[in-house]
Amino acid sequence: MKKEYIIYKLADKMKHSIHFDADLFSKYDVKRGLRNEDGTGVLVGLTNIGDVNGYERASDGKIIPIEGRLFYRGYNVADLVHNAQKEDRFAFEEVAALLLSGNLPDAEELKVFTDLIHDNMPLDHRTMLHIIELEGNDVMNILARSVLELYTFDENPDDTSRDNLMRQSIELVSKFPTIIAYAYNMMRHHKRNKSLSIRHPQPRLSIAENFLYMLKGKKFTRLDAKMLDLLLIVQAEHGGGNNSTFTVRVTSSAGTDTYSSIAAGIGSLKGPLHGGANLKVNKMIHYLKDEIKDWENEDEIRAMLMKVLQKKAFDKSGLIYGIGHAVYTKSDPRAELLKELAGDLAKEKGRLKEYEFMLRLERLSKECIYEVKGTNKTICANVDFYSGFIYELLAIPAEIFTPIFAMARIVGWCAHRNEELCFLGKRIIRPAYRFVDEYQEYIPICERDN
Ligand SMILES: CC(=O)SCCNC(=O)CCNC(=O)[C@H](O)C(C)(C)COP(=O)(O)OP(=O)(O)OC[C@H]1O[C@@H](n2cnc3c(N)ncnc32)[C@H](O)[C@@H]1OP(=O)(O)O
Ligand SMILES: O=C([O-])CC(=O)C(=O)O
Which residue windows are transmembrane per the record (predicted)? Predict the structure, then answer.
């Protein structure tokens, strides 16, 4: 047998060994995807960090859809965003301090915390050299690789005491923007022959400004940086159950080091059903803009969306990216905030026609999903639907849409890791899988005929 053939042979056998009768799930009361029968998440923990509200329960236990609300340490995120806008200041650092510590910092604490972030933004020259030397073709993978490497340069990497965890958390929040900006610039240089710029972070700039500066020098406005700051705030945390944060909690519960756990979270966030959806939305919108001749013709839009849902168009997954959510029903509060911002920005940049096309797509996608899936769950646009459009208006390249999500979510991941490792009564996370195949008698190799 040829070596190449063994791959196909093993894969073919695997095809038969991964089949389960659909009725086995209900027979054994399996919580597929850790979901209850009504689609809500199985309760697996307690947290003091984020609160994601997407529905209420009627007295008969049925779900009542509501407008979504998101709280960080008990504060409504919409209030945090609107106050930052009203006071015309950058607030991602303040939100990071709040999420990591549990308290809104006072002016002195915030200043010292921000100074500490600036101190930690530069990379060890070996990390920087490895980003340049090893190159790479995906910023999320380069980010994960660089985070794993930080273990080597940490003098106390395995210590899970509270002080050490907080030090590591602040260092990670500080270093993510630098790694992402350098990784992207290196990739651009390598893949597109563009000049390579390594700009050092500047001490008096906010994280959002510093990131844009490291990415593209002085080619950004204060308004651009304020938009990015708001995007970072709304993506910083989303409870313990979202796929990447849960990954961080699961790996942390085994007692592994911070860098291994965070690298696992990055891998999860990259998935197109989770944070990677922002890149998919961007590609999907470009595809639809090219394929649909008249952006105002609802029949034409509907027909194309139906093709997407029937796996005949776009990536043939049958998904309309940026629509649907595991918790939210009537609305994702982050999508609502971003929709408003996208409208203002589109007007300013003369791209209202595209914005109106997005609004139309959002409305018609929901209608088409109801029609095709026959689901009675109320669905809405999620945070990823409008974030990519705003990044594009800010001239941020698509390759770093998901990495920017990671730059924000590193805060939530660290807060949850620290909670998982420090709460009294913690347990290693270990759910169960029921074996449903047949038990076999061992067959000596000379008697097998495959
Ligand atoms: C930051 C974030 O992670 S936000 C989410 C980003 N992800 C996306 O935008 C990807 C597109 N959306 C989806 O895949 C889903 O809506 C998820 C993964 C976000 C949530 O999944 P679930 O909670 O399991 O979905 P839900 O129970 O509401 O789905 C019911 C049915 O509608 C389908 N559905 C839900 N959303 C979509 C969608 N956007 N396109 C097509 N079908 C959809 C489901 O596949 C399911 O169909 P099935 O019963 O035939 O399998
Ligand atoms: O909560 C989820 O399942 C996904 C999500 O929106 C996030 O992580 O921001």
Answer: none
30 — phi, psi (to 5°)? Answer: -75, 130
Q: Which ligand sits closest to the CA of 235? A: 2
Check whether residue 193 and residue 172 sit in a common domain: yes
Ligand 2 contact via 236 beta carbon (within 6 Å): no
Number of domains in the chain: 2
Domain around 330:
277-393
> What pTM did the predictor assign?
0.97
Residue in 240, 253, 251, 231 with CA at minimum distance from that of residue 407: 231
DSSP character string of 99-153: HHHSS---HHHHHHHHHHHHHH-SPPHHHHHHHHHH--S-HHHHHHHHHHHHHHH
Give catalytic residue positions.
325, 384
